Amino acid sequence: MQRRGILFFNALKQITFGVIILITTLAVTFHGSFKKKSNFPTAVIFSLSLDQVFYENSTRDLFASIGEKRFSEFFENENPLIQVRSLRTILARKRNVTIDATLNLVSNCLIRAHYPSLIKEIFKSLLTIRASKNHSLFEFKKMTLDSSFCKIIIRDDRVKIDFVTTNSMLSRLPYFFESPIKGRRVALWYSTNNEPMTFRGVPTPTNWNIDEINSRIDTHLVWTNDDVKFLKSLGISSVYSVGSILFQPKPINREKREVFTITYFDITPLSPRNYWIVGSHELFNSEANALSDLCNFIEFSNRLFEKFGHRVEVRIKPKRASSRKRSEKYIAKITEIAGKGEIKILDAGINLYQTVYESDLVIATPWTSPAILAKELSVLSVFFSTRNEDWELPPVYRGLKVLKSQPALLEFATTHIGDKFSQ
Asked: What is the pTM of this model?
């Protein structure tokens, strides 16, 4: 009886999803019938975040970054289409930015003569889906609309598209990465904190299917040779270092400042009620751990102000803007700091290159990218963490010191502040 109920529910859900897919496709093809067709994009880029596309850049800067020569060897970056799953994408109405790549290509690029064949392929795919499987709408769309579209365009030998994703989507790749469409499949690793932490002697799992990654992605682009070594140690092939991958413009000049500027790049933690999102209660960046680091950093700052006064500027750069998913206690502490005015709180969407360039010392949470970026830009940097009991942190990581107490951080900073003002 229970099994019948599950099958009935799944069947009803699939019918609903099928109707949604068909109505959406009919609407898009009707709209596309009256549009002037354009060429297929040279590449489709998936899984960039809303912040990366709309808040941390102008669209012009984003496309300029993607169009850099260092990427052109690995994918055709002259005329890319970027997919960002957000209503903000629809409201922004930006050329070459879409909420759904398949629907965009159907409307703008697929010739009208192929529309009946597309609808027919979708009907055929709907008949092959088993009611015993509980599919999400995302999975259902992959098996119907996405697969049907791919079957249509592979008939045209002239169509060649490179598909690009980021490391955030490795466990849930778009259908195009398993489709036979001609073109290259590339992964951009836009962060460097991919190596697992060790908790009570056990490395945290990566949850990557290495065989699937190797079969569906041709090339991986990472920041450094250390990243290359790490991915290859996991059995991932075709990995190349291309420098920092931030999708932001780089400043040309570094201004000389009269003060010693310290920038702490924090990570606003999840609220404890949302730990289920990452599937663990033993988080390196838990609310308690992040608050401990922040309070130690505040004490460190107070000591510096006592010793050096206004010759030192201290700033905190939050990784993310405040949201309901994030820790209320941590956000309240940041708000309290901002109200006092001694420590400057930077905007979460500020250009990272510029922020690092303006700094004399960058302090980052292990193993986040700002410290590696500072090293690339020849700016002094360290990792800082006070969570020493359960998490095993080496004294040096990728050539950068790992400081595990407020006194150690104070001693390190005091030495370099003295060096600057003695010159």
From this structure: 0.89
